[in-house]
Amino acid sequence: DSGVTQTPKHLITATGQRVTLRCSPRSGDLSVYWYQQSLDQGLQFLIQYYNGEERAKGNILERFSAQQFPDLHSELNLSSLELGDSALYFCASSVASSGIYEQYFGPGTRLTVT
Amino acid sequence: QQPVQSPQAVILREGEDAVINCSSSKALYSVHWYRQKHGEAPVFLMILLKGGEQKGHDKISASFNEKKQQSSLYLTASQLSYSGTYFCGTAYNAGGTSYGKLTFGQGTILTVHP
Which of B95, B97, B101 sits opposite A45 (nearest CB)? Predict the structure, then answer.
């Protein structure tokens, strides 16, 4: 158990819908990362927040957005869902912002778009 | 920009050794190694920093060759529990605009048979 929690574990929804994925980082970690894992794209970085502020952005679609709240939990919002958005979405956390710190992954949310 | 892992897959008998390589065309700042079992979260193994020492715990160790921009993961006397997909995640600077963003290789599937 990494100490990172994610809810829900599974999500099944229809095309065109909007969903929210939630992540709570490990105690003491200020940085939260979102990654998407699909069979054809592998593990892809989406976005990073540090202490409430956006710090880095990857190939995140405009239909996707995220935020980190004052209590440090983070939410990833996916809207106008398409079949291709079906994937495992992982949240990871680290104590600080740079690439020299370990990132611990949560159990993931499996999103299925039908 | 994605690091390249080799080999793509390895099949071992218990007790045998394996080496997994991760190569980058860009100058690396850090390399993070993870093991992922099917449907589960990536589990952090170790992090190597530019200019840092070779690391290891138990029978798994790793090195970082700055000249070649390559990291290698060494698994010795493999156990059944070592089976899974191994990913390297690379960070390209200490802070700057990449912050903690990790770019992952395509993964190496390791199978250990009794």
Answer: B101
